[in-house]
Amino acid sequence: MVLNRHIVVGICGGIASYKAVDLVSQLQQAGALVDVIMTEHAEEFIRPLTFATMSHRPVYSNLWEPSGQAAEIHIALAEEAELLAIVPATANTIAKLAHGMADNMLTAVALATKAPLLLAPAMYKEMYTHPATQVNLALLRERGAHIVEPEVGRLASGAVGPGRLPDTAVLVGAISMTLGQHSDLAGRRVIVTAGGTQEPIDPVRYIGNRSSGKMGYSLATEARNRGAHVILVSGPVALPAPYGVELHYINTALQMRDAVYDLITDADVLVMSAAVADFSPTNPAKHKIKKSSNEGRGHEGAETFSIPLVQSPDILGELADKPEGPTRGVQRHLICVGFAAETDNVITNARNKMSRKRVDLLVANDVTRSDSGFGTDTNKVFIFHADGAIEDLPVMSKAGIATAIWDRVVPLLSTR
Hints:
With 416 residues, the protein is α/β, with parallel strands linked by helices. The protein folds into two domains: 6-179, 3-Layer(aba) Sandwich (Rossmann fold); 189-413, 3-Layer(aba) Sandwich (Rossmann fold), CATH 3.40.50. The protein has helices spanning 19-29, 48-55, 69-80, 91-98, 105-112, 125-129, 131-142, 168-179, 214-225, 253-263, 315-321, 346-357, 398-413, and strands at 6-11, 33-38, 59-60, 83-89, 117-121, 146-147, 151-154, 160-164, 189-194, 199-200, 206-207, 229-234, 246-249, 269-272, 279-281, 309-311, 335-342, 361-366, 378-379, 381-385, 390-392, 396-397. Strand 7 and strand 8 form a beta hairpin. Helix 1 (19-29) crosses helix 8 and helix 3 (69-80) crosses helix 5. It starts with 5 loop residues before the first strand and ends with a helix. The model is unreliable at 295-301 and 325-331 (pLDDT under 50).
């Protein structure tokens, strides 16, 4: 979402300014045009040369330099910026912005630009929680500024509390979301399921699968970047929560089904990318099953052990069988996207699944491929359309696959 976007990053005089170096570097590597403005006090913490090296651009700071060129520069930056992100935002600069002051290059650009404003406050905990700072932040929110809340943790002073600047991934997520707030999914409510489910055998063991959740999390992130309100229903994964996404964790197929049905009212799109277990143990043990136990569960000596299974709920199948949706309120305009993880006969199996599930799109892949299986960062998929068309996409990153899927969902939204 930051590719080819012009982002102005403001750096204030706080110890967290060193973290902004990585932010500028990551934005530049992602293809953004990044201009950096430093306050006078920021230069006491870190040299402008550092940011110039990372951004491959000159750094601006002195509004009062003798040539007078800064007057032109601050207007040009204000007009060309697509986003002004102030990272870190100190209590002093927040107060100036709230009250319309423009006594340095950064605040002058902030007052002159029409670009969205993003603030990432970072300061000592008592300064952050002070009523004056909170009133100033509330005033800026009312004017449309996006505030990235600081984290609670150990501060430079040694104290523990709110005031830590979030990690770069969070800041990039907030910037991407802000840039995309008026994009092609703006105003849409989408639900994405991700990861695998864990069906308990006993309190210690479960039946699961190898799903990492990477595809679903990429889909959720891309939808967020395009302006959607995203609800992510996730099984157990080892992935960080995407910034700005409403996240609901579940463990079992039944829990996922209940979560989807509870959340789906008024949704525009449901993307079922989760690897939901097809079968679950019928009667999970209340205590850990011992090797020596023979509790009527099919144990035969030390060699075999049987676990009776029951078919798990088929969420998309249930939606297909009920045109108006479950009693909890699925609307007719809901667009459904299904996934098929196959190990052989991908085309045939996917066609059969699409016929049964009656989804609008079905994304199928061969999970035995080294570049397309569970846990990989790339994917190789076929996209099946309701009209019978099949697209064979090349191997690409899962983020790229997510972009391709939403590119095909957006036109469908205009037909419902």
